[in-house]
Design brief:
CATH topology of the largest domain in chain B: Rossmann fold
CATH class of the largest domain in chain A: Alpha Beta
Oligomer: heterodimer
CATH class of the largest domain in chain B: Alpha Beta
Helix content of chain B: 40-55%
Largest sheet of chain B: 6 strands, mixed
Shape of chain B: elongated
Radius of gyration of chain B: 33 Å
Structural class of chain A: alpha/beta
Largest sheet of chain A: 9 strands, mixed
Distance between the termini of chain A: 61 Å
Number of helices of chain A: 10
Order of helices and strands of chain A: HEHEEEEEEEEHEEHHEEHEEHEEHEEHEH
Structural class of chain B: alpha/beta
CATH superfamily of the largest domain in chain B: P-loop containing nucleotide triphosphate hydrolases
CATH topology of the largest domain in chain A: Rossmann fold
Strand order of the largest sheet of chain A: 6-7-5-2-10-1-11-19-20
Strand content of chain B: 5-15%
Number of strands of chain A: 20
Strand order of the largest sheet of chain B: 6-7-8-4-9-10
Number of domains of chain A: 2
Number of domains of chain B: 2
CATH superfamily of the largest domain in chain A: P-loop containing nucleotide triphosphate hydrolases
Order of helices and strands of chain B: HHHHHHHHHHHEEHEEHEEHEHEEHHEHH
């Protein structure tokens, strides 16, 4: 199954992973490959560092990013020596990273690149603009570990969510949590407040009263206090600027009150930092979650192989994921012949070797103590 | 320079510096590290100031050219460190890219500057296009704003890239990891050859650039100087500025302004009263009622003497003054009481230091040199009035006998007799009492004081012979209708 038909209508795309080794880079390589014959120019960057050939966290094999001639790449100065395309430097950005300033280059040949882009949302949005003005048709941002802010609509129109066996050994957890992440990203659009209400708001939150008035959350009052107070009886909508967290919502739930049809909205899905448990309880209490700007999840990809050595059944994973969400789901490795997965076996061996090494180190340190 | 940051802030100098808006990082660097002229550099200063005036005079006529050059300068990045590095080592590809960008920009800036300079005729500022150096880096002759070493540059490079491209094409057709792996390995080897050759070429280019580095740095310097000059001209157009006549023994300033205080007043819908003063060496004393603007006058004098030494036009209609090596201010509210001294003690310690710096103390005699201006704001105000008056009198007498310009503000009686010149804040002297009285009666009771403030004249006038204290306090009491019995009592006491 191809990714291209699912993503080609978007001008900007982000790839986010539920965890490390979810197959983000594999997805990115597939996108690059599938775009090859469309005549479209891609602009690639990442949030923070990505694209090392060996994973710096788990030390397992990671596929590199192999781009086509003409691709625009935004990466940090220090990464240039790991980009073996013929490089044309086209712009400097002034965005600093621990690996030096982010620079833009055009690949004048096919080849490997390593991405290390800015980690500030505003800078990423600016980079997309630079890509387009330099002639890119599509801007793609590769996400790093648990950087969900990346799917903020200001950065990309749509997201490919990557998940897989590396997230958990338990297939149920993988499926439930991924589906939940997708739900948060694709909440319905809020209807209680106008753009002007939100633009002019002061303080942390605004409320829509039973009389249809928009009022700010009184200073010194928590959201839970306000919702429990008789003064705000019958509130129909709440909009929170900034993060919506469990800590904010738990007191609301503890009140034991029912809120019939109360609409609770955040700026976008990336601002919702809540657990599935809280989400379910909100529903039970009659609170519906919405977002001012919704993100599109173009596809969910699954990777049945784990970097930690516990693989899941690929057909079961794909099948059950598809049942759970109404977003297209594909297996990132479905075109790859098993013989090509030699690296996967290798990385398993590498993990084993490292474990043995650690074990030995532990023992030898014991020896030292004994001596 | 002679004033520390707090003092510079206090007299409004930092405000002036912040108001200097440069467009290029080279101009910004000049603002951040201002050059202060010493009294022996009069000619250089005048040349600099004339350039500022020449730019100011052509701002209207050449406004579109100035707009264009500003936009071009805004795109520059400070890469002087790379240029310096190029003397020793080979630049990397990003540094070469940035250098090429600068050189391209120099070709755009130079002709616009030439057009401006035809009218402005600036002295010792010339922005030259760095075309020779650009030729070295413009490898394909396209004037492209990017940096890429084209295949034609070297045989080795061409061969390596051709071979690599062949492998890459095969890779595009390859199926499966088995076919791919050997091709990737081959490609990696060729990429290493390409990389090696590129590094070699970058070293060659860097070496070729070396003879041009001084010219490039000179160009950056000229852009910085022009940018700084333009910023000063725009400031002068906004706040007023005049080329002064540099004198030795006299100061004659007409309608001086202090932009910071002027802005603060404007926010409160009041306007700044320009300060005019003329004085010679020795001590000049400014007297006046409290809140009458003595300190404002003192700060304005200090600011205008100080900006001059930083190459900024004095904010005045006419200016005759010396170029000072040091402007020193002693003000109780600026002294650091952390030294465990009372504010009065700190003031005395600071005054001693200033005397040393100006070469006026016994200890520093013959050591310190140059021209200095010394400003004392309400010296010894923290002590009791009787003693304070005696101290200030003695200080004034001392300063009046010295070959230095000193200005003191005070409200102590009898000090002015010791000074060479005596100025007083006009205050309510020229006020039309009947008119103001009518206005006050028309206004709400609590607004009376504001009405008086609006009529207060903060200008200075020269007191030729002792006229006795101004009767402003009594006037105010009358205008604000102080209880009749008390008022009568005061009048009999006067």
């Amino acid at each position: 199954m191809l990714l291209l038909p699912l993503i080609e209508r978007y001008r900007s795309l982000s790839i986010i992973g539920m965890c490390k080794n979810a197959g983000k880079t594999t997805v990115l390589n597939r996108i690059v490959e599938e775009f090859e014959n469309t005549g479209k120019t891609l602009g690639l960057t990442s949030i923070g560092r990505d694209g090392e050939s060996v994973d710096v966290v788990t030390r397992t094999h990671k596929p590199g990013i192999y781009v086509r001639e003409g691709t625009l790449i935004a990466t940090a100065m220090e990464m240039l020596k790991h980009c073996d395309v013929s490089r044309e430097i086209v712009e400097t950005t002034g965005f600093p990273t621990p690996l030096g300033e982010v620079v833009l280059l055009r690949a004048r040949s096919d080849g490997n690149v390593q991405l290390a882009g800015p980690s500030i949302t505003a800078q990423l949005a600016k980079l997309s603009g630079m890509f387009f003005s330099l002639g890119a048709d599509v801007a793609i941002v590769d996400g790093a570990l648990s950087r969900k802010t990346l799917c903020a609509p200001t950065v990309s129109e749509a997201t490919v969510l990557c998940t897989g066996a590396s997230y958990s050994r338990d297939i149920n957890t993988v499926i439930e949590d991924t589906a939940f992440a997708a739900t948060l990203l694709t909440l319905p659009e809020q209807r209680s407040f106008t753009d002007a209400d939100r633009a002019n708001m002061k303080g942390k939150a605004i409320l829509r009263t039973a009389e249809g008035e928009t009022v700010p959350l009184p200073e010194g009052m928590s959201l839970a206090d306000a919702l429990r107070s008789p003064a705000f009886d019958g509130v129909t909508g709440v909009y929170v600027s900034g993060a919506v967290t469990d800590a904010l919502l738990k007191p609301v739930l503890m009140a034991g009150k029912r809120f019939n049809g109360l609409e609770l909205s955040a700026e976008d899905g990336s601002k919702l930092l809540i657990t599935r448990d809280t989400f379910d309880k909100l529903k039970l209490r009659g609170i519906s979650l919405t977002a001012a700007r919704s993100t599109k999840v173009a596809a969910i990809t699954v990777n049945p192989f784990s970097a930690y050595g516990f693989d899941l059944d690929k057909d079961e994973l794909l099948h059950r994921m598809r049942e759970k969400v109404d977003v297209p789901v594909i297996n990132v490795l479905d075109d790859v012949a098993l013989s090509d997965l030699s690296w996967h076996e290798e990385s398993k061996k590498a993990i084993e070797a490292r474990r043995a090494e650690e074990e030995q180190n532990k023992n030898s340190s014991h020896c030292c103590q004994v001596e | 320079m002679s004033l520390n940051f707090a003092q510079q802030e206090n007299i409004g100098f930092r405000y002036v510096v912040d108001a200097l808006r440069c467009d290029s990082p080279y101009g910004d660097a000049r603002v951040r590290r201002l050059r202060f002229y010493g009294s022996h550099e009069k000619e250089a200063l005048l040349k600099d100031l004339r350039n500022v005036c020449a730019v100011m005079a052509t701002l209207e006529e050449k406004s579109d050219r100035y707009g264009r050059i500003e936009r071009l300068m805004m795109q520059l990045k400070d890469i002087r460190r790379s240029v310096e590095r190029c003397r020793e080592i080979a630049l990397n590809e990003v540094e070469l890219f940035e250098l090429k960008r600068f050189l391209l920009q120099s070709e755009l800036i130079a002709p616009v500057f030439a057009e401006i300079n035809e009218a402005a005729k600036l002295q010792d500022i010339e922005i030259l296009a760095q075309s020779e150096a650009l030729k070295l880096l413009d490898l394909d002759g396209q004037h492209a704003a990017t940096f890429f070493i084209p295949d034609v540059y070297s045989k080795t490079l061409r061969a390596a890239r051709k071979e690599k491209r062949r492998v890459e094409e095969e890779l595009r057709r390859a199926q499966g990891e088995k076919e791919r792996a050997p091709l990737m390995a081959e490609r990696a080897k060729l990429a290493a050859v390409e990389d090696d050759e590129e590094r070699h070429i970058r070293a060659e280019l860097s070496e070729g650039l070396r003879p041009f580095l001084d010219g490039i740095l000179g160009c950056m310097d000229a852009i910085g100087m022009f940018d700084f000059t333009l910023a000063r001209a725009k400031l002068a157009r906004r706040c007023g500025g005049v080329v002064p006549e540099l004198t030795e023994d006299v100061i004659e300033m007409e309608d001086m302004v202090n932009p910071r205080i002027a802005e603060a007043l404007q926010e409160r819908k009041r306007s700044f009263t320009p300060v005019s003063i003329s004085m010679g060496k020795g001590a000049t004393v400014i007297t006046g009622a409290n809140m009458g603007g003595k300190s404002v006058a003192l700060k304005t004098i200090a600011l205008n003497a100080y900006v001059l030494s930083a190459g900024i036009l004095p904010f005045a209609k006419q200016a005759k003054l010396p170029l000072f090596d040091g402007v020193h201010i002693v003000s109780e509210d600026l002294e650091n009481v952390d030294r465990g001294l009372s504010s009065f003690g700190a003031e005395i310690v600071r005054f001693n230091e200033v005397l040393d710096e100006c070469g006026l103390s016994e200890k520093a005699k013959g050591q310190a040199s140059g021209k200095h201006m010394l400003l004392l704001d309400e010296f010894a105000r923290g002590t009791n009035p009787e003693e304070g008056a005696m101290i200030v009198k003695a200080v004034t007498r001392f300063l009046n006998r010295r070959d230095t310009f000193s200005v003191l503000t005070t409200h102590y009686d009898g000090v002015a007799e010791e000074a060479a010149a005596h100025y007083e804040v006009v205050g309510l002297r020229d006020m039309n009492t009947d008119k103001v009285k009518t206005e006050i009666d028309a206004a709400r009771k609590e607004d009376g004081a504001d009405v008086i403030a609006a009529h207060m004249n903060y200008g200075l006038y020269r007191v030729e012979k002792e006229q006795g204290c101004p009767r402003d306090a009594l006037n105010i009491c009358r205008l604000l209708s102080l209880e009749g019995e008390i008022l009568h009592d005061i009048e009999t006491l006067y």
